Amino acid sequence: MTTIPSSFDMAPKEENDLDEMSFGQRIIYHCKQQPLVPIGCILTTGAVVMAAQNIRLGNSRKAQNFFRWRIAFQGATLLALVAGSFLYDTHRKDMKSKEELMREKAKMREKLWIQELERRDEEAKSRRKRAELARQKTKENEQIIQKLEDELKDLESKVTPKSK
Fold first, then answer.
1. Structural domain tally of the chain?
2. DSSP structural state of residue 12
3. Are 44 and 70 in contact (CB under 8 A)?
4. Domain carrying residue 112
5. Where exactly are the transmembrane stretches of this chain (predicted)?
6. pLDDT for 46-93, tens place per residue?
7. How does DSSP assign 6-66, residue by residue?
């Protein structure tokens, strides 16, 4: 049995297909998924740079404050990463259940389509059978008509005197 074409076969590739994405596209995708993580990374990097600059200038108090900010930003980034991973995992499970529903729906559509094709096939077979029966009936009628015409000619030839 051949496979039946489906509207799902020609669907565009999903945006979530990470295997098909380049490295830069993956980074952008993950940054969109968890926007607080890159923001936290930037703030942490900024705090480290400011601390290093203050150490170089000899201002150890400001450097110490920036190092404290770095710890706070790193903690916030880690918290955002863990919370985002939890939320993303929950979202992904929901997406899988939606995909399963879509697959079930596609299977149901395929079954309905097959049933429709079988129904159409049965209708076509019954039409062919009726047409064949009609052709046979027509042939029988033509034969009967031919016999009747022959009988009529025979009777006409008997009834009409031959004049010569």
1. 1
2. P
3. yes
4. 19-157
5. 36-55, 67-88
6. 999 999 999 999 999 999 999 999 999 999 999 998 988 888 777 777
7. -TTTTPPPPTT-GGGS-HHHHHHHHHHH-THHHHHHHHHHHHHHHHHHHHHHT-HHHHHHH
